[in-house]
Amino acid sequence: MEVVIGLDGLVTNQDVLSKFGDVFELGSPNGNHLPDHKGGWGLNWDAFEDAMMYVQEGGIWGTSQKFVFTLMITIHGYVDLKRNNPEGFSTLRDTLASVATDYTGRGLSLEIAFVPAHPDKPSVIYAASPIRAVLILSGFSTGSPRLILSTFSMPSITSPHTVY
Question: What CATH number does the domain containing 92 carry?
Answer without folding.
Answer: 3.30.370.10
